[in-house]
Amino acid sequence: MNLHAMVRGAIGLVNPNITGVLYRSIGYRVDDNGNQIPAYSDPITVEIQVQSLTADDLQHLDNINQQGKMKAVYVNGNVEGLDRMRDLGGDILEFEGRRWLVTQQIEEWTQSGWCKVHVTSQLDEQKGNDSDLPQRDGEL
């Protein structure tokens, strides 16, 4: 039973879903100097629900040394955060005119096909942070 699908319409009346773009991490490449450069798949359009982090989320994330703007995002599908044990980078979500690094998966409901992730805003392209992501004409 997909409870999230049942309540998503009601939640959307208060906080509408938006369209985002997902770049899945596919590992990294090594440049001529031996530096690891993150690599991403082609972009996928996804429907997302963006919310503020709850007090429980903040407590759960207490040991993550992060600064900057952070949000919780519900996504249909599986989105991965940083996982050094499994050698996964971190997927990137693009919404609200910014790119957001998925730093941690907070909830995963594989049978229902959705997850809740913690995202942290990234520097914009003008500051040189996103040079390895595929570029989209006229955006960011």
List the helices and strands and how they pair.
Elements: H1 3-14, E1 18-23, E2 25-30, E3 36-40, E4 44-51, H2 55-60, E5 70-76, E6 92-95, E7 98-109, E8 114-121
Antiparallel strand pairs: 1-4, 1-6, 2-3, 4-5, 5-8, 6-7, 7-8
Q: What does this 3D model show about the protein?
A:
The protein is mainly beta. The protein has one domain (3-127): Beta Barrel (Thrombin, subunit H). It has two helices and eight strands, in the order H-E-E-E-E-H-E-E-E-E. The protein has helices at 3-14, 55-60, and strands at 18-23, 25-30, 36-40, 44-51, 70-76, 92-95, 98-109, 114-121. A six-stranded antiparallel beta barrel has the order 1-4-5-8-7-6. Strands 2-3 form a two-stranded antiparallel ribbon. A hairpin with a 4-residue loop joins strand 7 and strand 8. The longest helix has 12 residues, at 3-14. Mean pLDDT is 77; it is low at 126-130 and 136-140.
Number of domains: 1
Tell me about the largest β-sheet. Answer: 6 strands, antiparallel, barrel
CATH architecture: Beta Barrel
Structural class of the helix and strand makeup?
Answer: mainly beta
CATH superfamily: Bacteriophage SPP1 head-tail adaptor protein
**Amino- and carboxy-terminal Cα gap:** 38 Å
Radius of gyration: 15 Å
The percent range for strand residues is 35-45%
Reported by name, the CATH topology is Thrombin, subunit H
Helix content: 10-25%
Q: Strand order of the main beta sheet, please? A: 1-4-5-8-7-6
Shape: globular
Number of helices: 2
Count the E strands. 8
